[in-house]
Amino acid sequence: MNTKLLMISSASIMGLFSIIATFLPNEILIALGQIPTALLILMLQITGAIYFGFAIMNWMAKTVLIGGIYARPLAMGNFSHFIIVALALMKFIP
């Protein structure tokens, strides 16, 4: 698979999620059926900031050859993030 396309799509999706989580935390919490408390809003905005950082990192590294020694931290960060999120989401599958 073309790594440039993968990095661009990953950066775009995470960038979109980060903007939504940062600027619309009340609406997200209401849509999830939660009461928007200050702590939940803060946690959602922090999560949006983390996703924004990953999006910027992936966008800046879209031309780097993934698989070399210089991109190993980038690949491991993305891999661990997506595996941990996938395992956490699997807990909600009935």
Description of the structure:
The protein has 94 residues and is an all-alpha fold. The protein contains four helices and no strands. The radius of gyration is 15 Å and the shape is elongated. The model has no long low-confidence stretch (mean pLDDT 90).
Helix content: over 70%
Number of strands: 0
Radius of gyration: 15 Å
| Largest sheet properties | none
Give the DSSP E fraction (strand runs of 2 or more residues): under 5%
Query: Mean pLDDT, rounded to whole units?
Result: 90
Number of helices: 4
Distance between the amino and carboxyl termini = 32 Å
Set down the secondary structure blueprint.
Layout (H helix, E strand, L loop, with lengths): L2 H21 L1 H7 L6 H23 L11 H19 L4
Helix pairs in contact: 1-3
Summarize the model shown:
This protein is mainly α. The protein has helices spanning 3-23, 25-31, 38-60, 72-90.
List keywords for this structure.
single chain; about 90 residues; mainly alpha
